[in-house]
Design the sequence.
């Protein structure tokens, strides 16, 4: 049975190409040496004589500079060839004209290549008429084919280089755009995390401060109530710490189980209201309308955070006699949220702080607009409407 060679192709041509790309002057030296050596070999059809060998060397040596001065080298080789034709000496070094034309076609614009090719064609006519009688037509066709092949090969190499340069530029531009998009996405994620951190920390700290103040007042007269308040404050702190760990877990490469916990939604507003009540703020919570079968999780999180921020502001600025009323209204494809309190108007800095900006950003995602300001009868109110008709999935039951 014949043995079939399944090994990889011979790597020597690839090595030679890599060597030529790394040290192009070696390739030029090899080409010049090959032309001189072949022009010096004796043979029945080989142009010989001292004059032929001299012209071969004169034609080949300028090729050493063909990469730096392609047009100049072509002109120099053409002048030497014209002198050779005038003296009547035949030389193998005329092949240097083809190498020079290839270099011009590979490096210069098309019009320069055509001009050089036309000049070389004139030399072909002169050579065929002088040295190929009576078969000058056959010699002209053969030499013209060689000139055409050199020009076409060089032009293809030039187009290939231009294509590779374009592809490299496009790849670099796409990489830059990808990095830019990554930076923008990272900035947006940092903004989202900062907003979530503000909501979590501000709310839970406000609840803990209110509980701690209440416990300090009741520690002598009602120690049992003070103990309950401190327990609630401790539970609130642990809850805040858990939420912060879960939120910061998205920044880690290997998030733990806490990072996979669901974000709060509308169902958790009951627990939020109970937490605020435990901090000493009377809160009523009403729901009107029929909830939709499924509400997007992102919209539920936005609703939860808006209610959380509004109640936090009431805790911080409403005073000891304030109370609050949270109202959720469901309609066709939208959710209306209203939070009112009876405390004094909050400071302007609090009204226009980061919390209100965060609420507006969340509402804008769902074509909503937050309206916050003092009520006619006293107190403060926050109203918004979130639209979820046609919002893509990632929805959870209401």
Sequence:
């Amino acid at each position: 049975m014949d043995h079939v060679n399944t090994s990889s192709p011979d790597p020597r041509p690839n090595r030679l190409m890599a060597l030529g790309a790394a040290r192009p002057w070696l390739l030029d030296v090899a080409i010049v040496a090959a032309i001189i050596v072949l022009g010096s070999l004796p043979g029945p059809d080989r142009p010989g004589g001292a004059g032929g060998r001299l012209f071969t060397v004169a034609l080949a040596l300028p090729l050493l500079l063909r990469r730096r001065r392609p047009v100049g080298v072509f002109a120099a080789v053409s002048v030497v060839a014209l002198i050779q034709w005038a003296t009547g000496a035949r030389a193998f070094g005329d092949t240097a004209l083809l190498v020079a034309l290839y270099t011009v076609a590979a490096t210069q614009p098309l019009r320069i290549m055509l001009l050089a090719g036309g000049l070389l064609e004139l030399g072909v006519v002169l050579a065929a008429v002088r040295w190929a009688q009576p078969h000058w037509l056959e010699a002209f066709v053969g030499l013209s084919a060689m000139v055409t092949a050199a020009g076409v090969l060089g032009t293809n190499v030039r187009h290939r280089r231009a294509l590779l340069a374009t592809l490299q530029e496009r790849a670099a531009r796409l990489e830059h755009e990808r990095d830019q998009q990554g930076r923008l996405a990272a900035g947006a994620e940092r903004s989202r995390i900062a907003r979530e951190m503000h909501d979590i920390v501000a709310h839970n700290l406000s609840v803990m401060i209110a509980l701690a103040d209440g416990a300090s007042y009741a520690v002598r007269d009602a120690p049992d109530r003070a103990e309950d308040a401190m327990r609630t404050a401790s539970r609130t702190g642990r809850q805040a710490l858990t939420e912060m760990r879960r939120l910061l877990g998205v920044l880690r490469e290997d998030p733990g189980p806490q990072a996979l916990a669901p974000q709060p939604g509308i169902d958790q507003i009951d627990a939020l209201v109970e937490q605020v009540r435990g901090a000493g703020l009377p809160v009523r919570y009403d729901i009107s309308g029929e909830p939709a079968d499924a509400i997007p999780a992102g919209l539920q999180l936005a609703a939860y955070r808006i209610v959380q921020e509004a109640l936090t502001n009431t805790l911080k600025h409403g005073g000891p006699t304030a109370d609050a009323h949270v109202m959720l209204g469901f309609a066709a494809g939208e959710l209306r949220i209203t939070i009112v309190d009876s405390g004094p108007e909050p400071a302007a800095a609090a009204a226009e702080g980061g919390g209100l900006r965060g609420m507006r950003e969340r509402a804008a995602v769902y074509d909503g607009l937050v309206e916050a300001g003092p009520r006619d009868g006293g107190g403060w109110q926050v109203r918004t409407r979130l639209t979820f008709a046609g919002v893509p999935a990632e929805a959870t039951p209401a």
Q: What stands out?
A: Residues 59 and 77 are 5 Å apart (CA to CA). The first strand starts at residue 283 and ends at 288. The two ends are 75 Å apart (CA to CA).
